[in-house]
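Our consortium's second objective concerns turning raw sequence data into structural hypotheses that experimental partners can test. To show how far this objective has progressed, the report includes one record in full. It was chosen at random from the queue rather than selected for favorable results. The single chain below, 197 residues long, was entered without modification.
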Amino acid sequence: MSSELQTILSYNQQFVESGGYGEFLTGKYPDRKLAVLSCMDARIIELLPHALGLKNGDAKIIKNAGALVTHPWGSVMRSLLVAVLELKAEEIMVIAHHDCGMQKLHADSFLNKAVAAGIPQDRIDTLRSAGIDLDSWLTGFDNVEDSVRHTVSVIRRHPLMPVHIAVHGLVIHPTTGKLNLVVDGSLPPAVSDGQPA
């Protein structure tokens, strides 16, 4: 089995020795006072910042599968709170994308793949017996816009999130980079969520 590790380490040595990092030098505070929660999809690694006009140093970017906050006390929510309370971000953008793998994720299929990869079935059974809800944890979403609205709501309603922080929701096209606004966080919640005021 080949590994990318040696290729990356070799490239990294040349990058550092040649001073390639110079063009990326910036401070730890986001220049545009922005935090972005986006998906880890490989198609938007470079596309997302280019489509938003972001350069190194402009924003704190947090990535996970589906651009989701699935638990109010998980690492994603903590990262957003650190971006706001410690690193001076004043706006948050949740940016999911069309054709997301989380939209097709189903617990049964996922766990079958885990077993096929060598995870013993009894380990899965033990997790279920211990009260871990694998079905909810390993199930994605049906509609990307609804998922964005839900995540925006979880962030906005978090007891440690300051009320003046605008939390926006968007969906990016993974090929063209076109953004569709789902929630305008600068508007009152009932208006920005598409509900009558």
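The partners drew two points from this record. The first helix runs from residue 5 to 17. The two ends are 58 Å apart (CA to CA). Both points have been shared with the crystallography group to help prioritize constructs.
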